[in-house]
Each structure stands twice: as structure tokens, then as C-alpha cells.
Amino acid sequence: MSIWTELSPLDVSVSYVDAAGVRTRSLRAGSGEPVVFLHGTSGHLEAFTRNMSAHAARYECHAIDMLGHGYTGKPDYPYEIPRYADHLLAYFDAVGIERAHIVGESLGGWVGGRVAIDHPDRVASLQLLCAGGTVANPEVMKRIRTSTREAVLSDDVELTRKRLRLLMADPADATEELVEVRHAIYHQPDFVANVDNLLCLQDMETRLRNILQPDDLARISQPTLIVWGRKNPFGDVPEATAMHEAIAGSQLELFEECGHWPQHEQADRYNPLSLAFLDKSSAAGFAGKGRG
């Protein structure tokens, strides 16, 4: 099953949007209330191709390459969380989204959480899929920084394959097609030039000034679903439990035999779980929808 086989049943578009001057790649499908999917560090929108068909049957789906990632523009400054948040809101404005459900994996969850806290009127519900940004573990930060830089600064595709397999409980989920996509992205000249801007959150001082503290999480008022893999290489289950305890009314789901990409590794379980959560959140009161 290839990426395009997954997407072929859909009336889907891949286009570029000017988000406050940043050329932003966007995959869109479906109609209804907007759901925006955000990937993790050094990731790209293909992280959600196993989810688009199921969600687009009911929702207007947007998967984007975040600031400095994928084929989106890569301005020359460190990509800290406020920068990601500003870019996301600029994308909302560019495509006419007043308020959206946000699905954030890893870094995407960190950004989604920040936007939900600071701009609650723009976020209808929040999904945190192995979300980052609540702890600063030097060993994990070093693993992310080292594995990414090695894969980007060397043309050896095996290093890209190793970086992608690091995310998965089952290496087979790091398909060769995904490896080829990521290898091509990693070796764009502007990606290579800006890799340290992209990895700035793996620097302890930078991370600590961006981190989401328990008091921050307690300000999240939107319906929140937390999904965590028990074999997540970048964070243990207590990290997810702490998020759940800090966010009032949140729902926590632990996936067995799952790593850092639950939406991809266990799409057959994740998709109905997500849709049930979105339907419930929508029924509880969604104000505003996409105009574009």
C-alpha cells in the first residue's frame, strides 16, 4: 500500500499557500469542520496519509509541512515554538480557517498545545499524539539531534532509514517509500542549511524557555485526546499520564506495541478513535468553520 494508493479514493489537492510570506505545502481533502494535522520534528505531511481518507469522509482535512519542514519555506532563524504558532495561525488566516480541530504528533502536539493555550478561540479540540514539549530529557534530545543531523549531512540513505525506523515499534512501518520521501526532503539545500535552526529545541536552554509547564497545560480548556505508544522511544508513559492529569477532562489512550507515530503505526485503531472524539467534540459545540 503506497502513499498515493491511500489517497487515491479522495478528491485531494497538494498546493502551496502563502502564510504571511512563508510558502507552505498543504495536503487538503474533504469538507466540513476543519481538522489540521501537524507532524513532528524533521517530519512532513506524509505522516498522515493513512488518516486522510477516513477523516475526509466527515471533515475538511489539512495536513501541512510546518515552518522549516518538508517543502515549506525555511527562513534563517531558530524555529522556536512561538514561530511555529505564528506560522500555523498565518496558515489558518490564509485559507480562511476561523477555528479548527488540531491533531498534533510530537512537535506538532507541542505547537498545537501552545496555540490552544494562547489562542483558545482558534482551537475547537486538541489531539496530542506522543506530544513533545513537557519534559527536557538530555538523552532523548541528543538522540533526536544526532540522528537527524547525521541523516541530513550525509547522503547515505541508510541513515535516513535508521532515523525513520527510530520512530516505529515495527521497522516495517518505516516503508521504503517513506524513506525515499524523507531522504529527498532532508537533502534539499535549504533543509541542509537550516537543520540547526530546526533542531534548536534540542538545545537545553532553548527548550526550557519553550517548554509547556503543568500550569500551562492546566489552561487547556478544549476537549483533549492524548494518544501514546507504550514503545515510544522519545517519552515514557508517565509523561503521557502527567499530561492527562494536568489537562482537565482529557482522555488518555495507550497503544500497545506502538512507537512514536500511533496515527501511522496503528491507523486502524487510531482512525475510529479520533473520529469518535472529533464527533463528540463537534457535538459539544463547534463555533466557526473553514471558509476556504
From TrEMBL:
<protein>
    <submittedName>
        <fullName>Alpha/beta fold hydrolase</fullName>
    </submittedName>
</protein>
<dbReference type="GO" id="GO:0016787">
    <property type="term" value="F:hydrolase activity"/>
</dbReference>
<feature type="domain" description="AB hydrolase-1">
    <location>
        <begin position="34"/>
        <end position="265"/>
    </location>
</feature>
<dbReference type="Pfam" id="PF00561">
    <property type="entry name" value="Abhydrolase_1"/>
</dbReference>
<keyword id="KW-0378">Hydrolase</keyword>
<dbReference type="InterPro" id="IPR050266">
    <property type="entry name" value="AB_hydrolase_sf"/>
</dbReference>
<dbReference type="InterPro" id="IPR000073">
    <property type="entry name" value="AB_hydrolase_1"/>
</dbReference>
